[in-house]
User: What shape does this take?
Amino acid sequence: MMAWIFLLAGYWWYTSAHGLTPSQTMQILINFISESPYGFLIYTLVYMIRPVFLFPATLVTMAATYLYGPVQGIAYALIASNLSTMVAFLIGRFFGGGFLQNMDDNNLIGKYANRLRKDGFQTTLILRFLFLPYDLVSYFSGFLHIDLGWFMLATILGSIPGTISFGMLGASIKGDFASQSVTLDPLSLVISAAMFAVSIALYRVVRYREKKISQ
Assistant: This one.
């Protein structure tokens, strides 16, 4: 809560002192990151501290492809998002204590908590394919002290379709926010929707194989 208060106070002070609108402020930030030789490092740092503020990962992923284009942007987003996942996981592990350790298996949260304990890799993979809130899954897994290696491998593999989907959504945005001349590229939107469908299809495949093995 305090992190959000300081962030909003800093934003209010900067825009008021320079007489800027929100769209102008956004464009200044975009220009600074895209033109700076340290742009990727700044972007990665922002992505890594994002879980502390619970800022949506999808928006930061979209920002990468808007800033750097689809190929480079998706590569940057994959690296930064997985680093941020590790940060959220470790925060959950070190500060979660015994939270969720004795969760009732009869409710939905308890069911997935039990699944994560038994098979952290496959359950994490399923949750990533389903586009569940990125940080919620990471904190949840950290609370449960599941194996970090399997968690990260499942996250890397499971987040690829979603990162491409949201990355292409960001790449579809063309124009200048300051002048409010923003358009959308139809082809990028189609690719984004297709990758969303691929992720859901992969979820169904994994669940089908899981059911077949359990029979």
User: Anything to note?
Assistant: The mean pLDDT is 83. The two ends are 47 Å apart (CA to CA). The CA atoms of residues 95 and 211 lie 35 Å apart. The beta strands are 173-176, 181-184.
